[in-house]
């Protein structure tokens, strides 16, 4: 019995010391609330990472869940009781307005928390928007021309102008009516987006992005996405 007790005591002491010796990751914060941001802003933040263990903390991959978010880690190896930084920048250009939550995943050799999720949380505000921002339609047969009624919202205190429409898609051409549109401050105005589809045999769908060009100094393009699916005989 005494031998068994000594073995258990030794194993308990050994495991306790091993756990204490392991690297242990800690952050000054894991969520950064940036409040509200205007479209086009670049939101930067530094997260301080500290090694709370006694073994060196190895920082591996630092991955963002969105191409709009860039990361830069400081030291890849952090000694015990030392700190480094992970810099994050969220570029709002090209993003839709509304609630935003961007995540960064930090990989390390901490046995208890091998992956830690950091977050940027807030709301993005745009002065110009297309309503609705997307269009989807199913057609039984091919239709060459499609008209899409939308509204352009202007929440700024300055009149803004929609000056042109364009797309990089090769299988469609686009137009708008009217050909130029002025939207008064804090109002919305109707606009018709016109799609001209180029017929291609055995093509089941047409999809892509349309850009409405504006005279806004920052929000120079409004993105509109479309999907037209041909379900029957073309």
UniProtKB/TrEMBL annotation:
Entry keywords, A to Z: Signal
Entry superkingdom: Bacteria
Leader peptide range in chain numbering: 1-21
Annotated coiled-coil segments of the chain: none
Entry keyword Signal: yes
Keyword GTP-binding: no
Protein's name in the database: DUF1573 domain-containing protein
Native source species: Desulfomonile tiedjei (strain ATCC 49306 / DSM 6799 / DCB-1)
């Amino acid at each position: 019995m005494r031998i068994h007790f000594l073995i258990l005591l030794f194993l308990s002491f050994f495991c306790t010391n091993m756990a204490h010796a392991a690297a242990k990751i800690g952050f000054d914060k894991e969520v950064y609330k940036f409040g509200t941001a205007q479209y086009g802003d670049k939101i930067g933040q530094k997260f301080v990472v500290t090694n709370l263990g006694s073994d060196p903390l190895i920082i591996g991959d630092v991955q963002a869940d969105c191409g709009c978010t860039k990361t830069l880690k400081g030291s890849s190896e952090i000694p015990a009781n030392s700190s480094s930084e992970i810099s994050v920048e969220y570029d709002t250009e090209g993003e839709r307005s509304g609630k935003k939550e961007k995540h960064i995943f930090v990989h390390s050799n901490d046995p208890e928390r091998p992956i830690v999720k950091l977050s940027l949380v807030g709301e993005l505000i745009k002065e110009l928007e297309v309503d609705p921002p997307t269009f989807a339609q199913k057609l039984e047969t091919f239709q060459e021309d499609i008209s899409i009624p939308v509204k352009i919202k202007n929440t700024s205190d300055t009149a803004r102008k929609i000056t042109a429409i364009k797309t990089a898609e090769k299988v469609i051409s686009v137009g708008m009516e009217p050909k130029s549109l002025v939207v008064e401050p804090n109002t919305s105005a109707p606009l018709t987006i016109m799609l001209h589809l180029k017929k291609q045999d055995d093509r089941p769908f047409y999809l892509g992005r349309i850009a409405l060009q504006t005279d806004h100094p920052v929000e120079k393009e409004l993105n509109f996405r479309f999907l037209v699916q041909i379900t029957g005989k073309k």
